[in-house]
Structures are given as structure tokens and as C-alpha cells.
Amino acid sequence: MAASKLQALWNHPAGPKTIHFWAPTFKWGISIANIADFAKPPEKISYPQQIAVTATGVIWSRYSMVITPKNWNLFSVNIAMAGTGIYQLSRKIKHDYFSEGEAKPAVATE
Asked: Which InterPro entries match (predicted)?
């Protein structure tokens, strides 16, 4: 039974013998790198980069369900990209516009 499932995966139109399998597989590297950047301080996060990651994830997660055959690897990686991008953008926006722990200049009082 396992051999027949492996054979079905191998011969699937979006299986490992096609670019439709490998392109989204390599996109996982972007998502993993974005997860690794969760440890970065918010001031080092780039708005353009995270907007691009988020937009790519949102747009292509929708269109990955339109193509035939459905490519679940493409859908999953784009959901991950959208999620990590939204999280990083929220960290950056929160830091830039809503942080209250800013150091204020000391005022000399006598």
C-alpha cells in the first residue's frame, strides 16, 4: 500500500518530477528565514521586504487554489509566508508607532 501511494505521488502532475513541486518547496526557505528573523529586534525589520513577503503569500495562496491540479504545497507555503509576514509587520508597526517604553531625555531639575 505504501508503495502504491509513493508511486502515485511520484507520477502526480504536481509531483517531484516537475517544477510545480520544487518551486514552492524552495519558497519554504523564505518562510523559515522569516521565522528565524523573529529573534531580530523590530528596528532591523524591513517594511518593503515584509510587505513583499505578505503580499506574495496572500495573493498566491488564493491563486494556488485556482490552478489544476491543486498544489497543496504551494498553498501551504503561501499561507506560511502571509502569516510570518503579517506577524513581522505587526511587530515593526507596534515598535515604530505604539511603543511607550521610549527613553525620554533627562530634564535637569534643581
From this structure: MPC
